């Protein structure tokens, strides 16, 4: 039996209707921006393997540091014990994050980093004697993960529909624009005394359709929250570590969120790790002789030393002299390509931010076309050796920063060809 056939017998894949799933491609090796299948076919990983890989596959520096750590200390319980990689990573992250972040809490993925952020905010208010502040504000099209708390603060969609009666209530708001910003601020002012926190993806909403909005309006929303003491959570799970052109998207804000959620690019896409950071104000609200004020949260693999070592190695590369210029290079090329195709009749919208380029396909009113278009686009690029994962009629590229100009040009040419063929 082939690997694909053995897979079919025993594996249940994520986000996949298994009844009519396309055969899963057996990947045997990765190198730089490329993945290779069993037959030796080469693919450009234009979505960074679900947005996690920032420096390319099987990076020698990360591989070396991970291997070294494995033979020194693979794991240790993180309650009552600590270790060098966890402390050093916290020191380096706090140095790099914008604002006044002071403490790092480790988990093992993006969803759990969001769960911890929500718990920190809700318990902050109960610890400080404001038990009525339990409401949460989030964007209507947000995506914050797949565990129940993270699902609750994500937009209601087909992903969350089977669980909708079990999800806690959230005050959803529209993405801010010049037109609605005053209205959004009034809503926050009106709800203020009952609100614990506002959670947001800064400037780019990922799984919700790669939607973008202006930093200026996020600043205004955060400032309005802060006027009322409402805590703010920046979910930088996708935007962190250079993706939008700066190390963190929030660097371009004037205001300072209270909490950051990080994962995905944190380990360079090598292994799972999540981080929730907070400022001193939040941390101090949990210091007490009363045991009930403790943050009772933890995972078996909290601050796994090997994952921390991978993250330290990934930070070395991120902060090296080549990386920001690479990010700027991708950004400039994306901008030029966006300008070139924006008038194409099949392009409904094209937008870009940093290394992310997004193109919405014109579908008219034909819904049957829309439902088949996604798979058609996916297969079109796959056949031409490019991995893209369209979100409905939206295709996007979000590549590792080491992608070459030639590979970018090949992707652009293929998109242009698809616009003519499909
Ligand atoms: C992917 C993502 C998450 C969830 O992270 P997982 O590691 O998949 O659980 C949360 N927030 C944002 C913005 C994401 O893009």
Automatic annotation (TrEMBL):
Catalyzes the transfer of the alpha-amino group from S-adenosyl-L-methionine (SAM) to 7-keto-8-aminopelargonic acid (KAPA) to form 7,8-diaminopelargonic acid (DAPA). It is the only aminotransferase known to utilize SAM as an amino donor. Its cofactor is pyridoxal 5'-phosphate. It comes from the Bacteria. It catalyses: (8S)-8-amino-7-oxononanoate + S-adenosyl-L-methionine = S-adenosyl-4-methylsulfanyl-2-oxobutanoate + (7R,8S)-7,8-diammoniononanoate. Pathway: Cofactor biosynthesis; biotin biosynthesis; 7,8-diaminononanoate from 8-amino-7-oxononanoate (SAM route): step 1/1. This is Adenosylmethionine-8-amino-7-oxononanoate aminotransferase. It comes from Pedobacter steynii. InterPro entries: Aminotrans_3, BioA, PyrdxlP-dep_Trfase, PyrdxlP-dep_Trfase_major, PyrdxlP-dep_Trfase_small. It is found in: Cytoplasm. Belongs to the class-III pyridoxal-phosphate-dependent aminotransferase family. BioA subfamily. Its EC number is 2.6.1.62. The record marks 15 as: Participates in the substrate recognition with KAPA and in a stacking interaction with the adenine ring of SAM. GO terms for biological process: biotin biosynthetic process. The gene is bioA. Its main location: cytoplasm. The modification N6-(pyridoxal phosphate)lysine is found at residue 264. The keyword Transport does not apply. One of its GO terms (cellular component) is cytoplasm. The keyword Transferase applies. Pfam families: Aminotran_3 (PF00202). Substrate binds at residues 50, 143, 264, 298, 389.
């Amino acid at each position: 039996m082939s690997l694909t056939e053995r897979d079919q017998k025993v594996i249940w894949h994520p986000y996949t209707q298994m009844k009519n799933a396309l055969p899963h491609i057996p990947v045997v090796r990765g190198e730089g921006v490329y993945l290779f299948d069993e037959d030796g076919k080469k693919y450009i990983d234009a979505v960074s393997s679900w947005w996690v890989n920032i420096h390319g596959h099987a990076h020698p520096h990360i591989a070396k540091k991970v291997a070294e750590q494995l033979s020194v200390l693979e794991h240790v319980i993180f309650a009552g014990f600590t270790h060098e990689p966890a402390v050093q990573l916290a020191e380096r992250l706090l140095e790099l994050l914008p604002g006044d972040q002071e403490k790092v809490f480790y988990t093992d993925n993006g969803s759990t980093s969001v769960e911890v952020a929500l718990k920190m905010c809700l318990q902050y208010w109960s610890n400080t004697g404001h038990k009525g502040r339990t409401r949460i504000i989030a964007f209507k099209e947000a995506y914050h993960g797949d565990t129940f708390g993270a699902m609750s603060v994500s937009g209601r969609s087909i992903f969350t529909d089977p669980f909708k009666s079990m999800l806690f209530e959230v005050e959803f708001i529209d993405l801010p624009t010049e037109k609605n910003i005053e209205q959004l601020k009034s809503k926050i002012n009106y709800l203020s005394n009952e609100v614990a926190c506002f959670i947001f993806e800064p400037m780019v909403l990922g799984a919700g359709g790669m939607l973008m909005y202006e930093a200026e309006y996020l600043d205004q929303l955060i400032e309005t929250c802060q006027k009322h003491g409402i805590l703010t959570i920046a979910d930088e799970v996708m935007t962190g570590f250079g993706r939008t052109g700066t190390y963190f998207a929030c660097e371009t804000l004037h205001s300072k969120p209270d909490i950051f959620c990080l994962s995905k690019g944190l380990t360079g896409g090598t292994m799972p790790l999540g981080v929730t950071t907070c400022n001193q104000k939040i941390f101090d609200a949990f210091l007490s002789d009363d045991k009930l004020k403790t943050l009772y949260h933890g995972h078996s693999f909290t601050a796994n030393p090997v994952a921390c070592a991978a993250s330290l190695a990934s930070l070395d590369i991120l902060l090296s002299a080549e990386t920001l210029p690479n990010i700027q290079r991708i950004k400039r090329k994306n901008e030029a390509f966006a300008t070139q195709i924006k008038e194409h009749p099949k392009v409904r919208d094209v937008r870009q931010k940093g290394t992310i380029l997004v193109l919405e396909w014109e579908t008219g009113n034909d819904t049957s076309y829309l439902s088949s278009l996604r798979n058609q686009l996916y297969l079109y690029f796959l056949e031409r050796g490019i991995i893209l994962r369209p979100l409905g009629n939206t295709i996007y590229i979000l590549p590792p920063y080491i992608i070459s100009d030639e590979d970018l040009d090949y992707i652009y040419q293929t998109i242009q060809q698809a616009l003519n063929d499909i």
